[in-house]
């Protein structure tokens, strides 16, 4: 059977796969449920000429293959941008990553001393085999700093107590960072020339690349180049059913159209949704496991205001229980091209919620009023300077790492071994809290498998080991270094 690939989702994973397959002369069709935007959560939306991200996306990877991909798509339209972010706690702003002496000064001598003692206690008496975020972070920073700089924000993001969130999330997002490493980085700031970038903990990087007009620019251009290579991109085409019949896949969309003759399916759709639409149905245990996977959603309230230099950070984490906002983006600081008028600024206030809850169902005008009130309460802008607002709701922004997620995903993985040619890729496809570059890497390796006609790499291992996620070299050749660790055991002998 000739290779023909259906790709569900036009986000970073799906479009990376489409482009690479097309370059290898493999026929590919992309199905995207959005009628207008590509890029998924990495898209860039526009309102009255103002561009804004859905969450803010740094373009930084330890993978040379990913970095080269970005350069191939956008070239000199990628800007090198300084990283600038802070935390807001107890009506004070703290540099992030922590600046040791500033943190000590602003916390005060007594509180700082208690934090140091708490940290030393954690080093002497750590929680053995921590299974939740509270214990994992407390081991790294001490219980007191965990409560100050992690607990409130993390519980805003996930909507559940830290004790109920798997330690896997913290291990992926801040692996390699501890109080000692943060202080060392602050006091003895490492020089990050190209030869030294392999030593930079990803959480501590101080610059990144960024498309001139937002991350969506990358994926819009990728679509253009993919179409030029023969890829078909079906917009406004939500996949409602996928069928495997005689080792051949067919795709049915919400338009009522059916597409047939696919040898492979690559899906970045939420695992829960994909499994519900897959035929023949998975075994009952695996199907039920997929339906128990949970997601966290969020709302971005965009405020357009006069630029009065209130702050220049890319984003600020809000560790303050007195307001509902969890993080604030300054899109002009990501790139000056995001704002059409230099006298204006564009901020994005992020509210984490569950689809259908009170926050999610609030009227747009009420959300805008809340954001205006809270940004003034924090001290970043005055309500009088705000001239307009806009609301974006993002469902299934984050796969939830509760205590049962790993077992549920494993049951699905095992069942899918009986569905030849079906690959799950990307963040929601694999129910993994992947960064953009990790999602792309899963697509790259899936494409390599399809092109080679063999299961050369186990894509489930991408972002499993800390060496790749936080400690691999920026500029390392993935196919020779990282990917060789992903070869299934049965192919190594």
Indicate the topology.
Elements: E1 4-8, H1 12-23, E2 27-31, E3 44-47, E4 50-53, H2 64-74, E5 78-82, E6 85-89, E7 92-96, H3 100-107, H4 109-124, H5 133-141, H6 143-158, H7 167-173, H8 179-187, E8 207-211, H9 215-228, E9 232-234, E10 239-245, E11 248-253, E12 258-262, E13 264-267, H10 271-276, E14 278-279, H11 284-291, E15 295-306, E16 315-318, E17 327-330, H12 331-334, E18 344-353, H13 364-378, E19 386-399, H14 405-416, E20 422-424, H15 427-430, H16 436-452, H17 466-471
Parallel strand pairs: 1-2, 1-13, 2-9, 6-16, 10-14, 13-20
Antiparallel strand pairs: 3-4, 5-8, 6-7, 10-11, 11-12, 15-18, 15-19, 16-17, 17-18
Helix pairs in contact: 1-9, 1-16, 3-4, 4-5, 5-6, 5-7, 11-14
Describe the structure.
The protein is α/β, with parallel strands linked by helices and 493 residues long. It folds into 3 domains: 4-44 and 62-76 and 213-293 and 403-491, FAD/NAD(P)-binding domain (3-Layer(bba) Sandwich), CATH 3.50.50; 85-202, no CATH class; 295-399, Protoporphyrinogen oxidase, mitochondrial, domain 2 (Polyamine Oxidase, Chain A, domain 2, Alpha-Beta Complex), CATH 3.90.660. Helices cover 35% and strands 23% of the residues. The protein is built from 17 helices and 20 strands. The protein has helices at residues 12-23, 64-74, 100-107, 109-124, 133-141, 143-158, 167-173, 179-187, 215-228, 271-276, 284-291, 331-334, 364-378, 405-416, 427-430, 436-452, 466-471; strands at 4-8, 27-31, 44-47, 50-53, 78-82, 85-89, 92-96, 207-211, 232-234, 239-245, 248-253, 258-262, 264-267, 278-279, 295-306, 315-318, 327-330, 344-353, 386-399, 422-424. The strands form 5 sheets. A 7-stranded mixed beta sheet has the order 7-6-16-17-18-15-19, sandwiched between helices. The protein has a 5-stranded parallel beta sheet with strand order 9-2-1-13-20. Strands 12-11-10-14 form a 4-stranded mixed beta sheet. A hairpin with an 8-residue loop joins strand 16 (315-318) and strand 17. The longest helix has 17 residues, at 436-452. It starts with a strand and ends in a 22-residue tail after the last helix. The model is unreliable at 194-203 and 465-473 (pLDDT under 50).
